[in-house]
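INFO  loader      accepted 1 record
INFO  loader      residues=248
INFO  predictor   begin
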Amino acid sequence: MYRKSASLVFIFFALLFILMSHFLFPRFITETKNPLLNLLRPPQKMAPIKQAKDLEIKLSDGNLMTAALVKSEVKVPKGLIILIHGIRGQKESFNGLTRRLAKRGFHSVAVDLRGHGQHTASHSTFGAKEKHDISLLVDHLIHKEGIDQKIGLWGISLGGAVSLQALAVDKRISFAIVESTFSNLNGTVHNYFKHFGGFNIPPFTDYLIKRAGKMADFEPSKVIPSEACKNITQVILVVHGDKDKRIP
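INFO  predictor   done
INFO  writer      dumping tokens
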């Protein structure tokens, strides 16, 4: 009787683990606003960006990208910089930087990426779709906001990966600053599993990555910023610390 009960318990938990691996765990890769993740790490409440004009850009899939435009305090602006946050970040992360850039003669636009902040899309695609979102933002800035200065990007971590991929497909972007970004998505997810979990089982992690891609409607294996670099002709500054334990 005891063995039968133990077997039933084992089968129950095995089935539960399989179901969670198929339906729940992959969401942790692409859904930064997942309720379970927010229980473990509640999102920070940040003040709105000061003296900013709120922008909403309608994307090709019907979602809305939210952004905040801060104009230069200098009479003749030097350019415009699009500020792109990292994973679990949001446009409000740049509240102080937008003011410093304004004083130094730059317009700036802080954006919410897919799955972050007030962006209406629920999943991050790590640049697969975001690179095209940035192009639509550039369209808006040129044609709706009257920006005629050079436009550049400043991306941190995930934002850096988006920046490199956007540079490769949109030559209207003149320059970029890229901080602490990754070379390819699949390898980075493996690194994160090992860093946070203490171990990594490659076949299991690959399965989760593939499922996450299906849920978010993109192909993770094609998110390779280092490959995008081959098509970049613009000026870029890449900065990465050799003590970065999450992204080597």
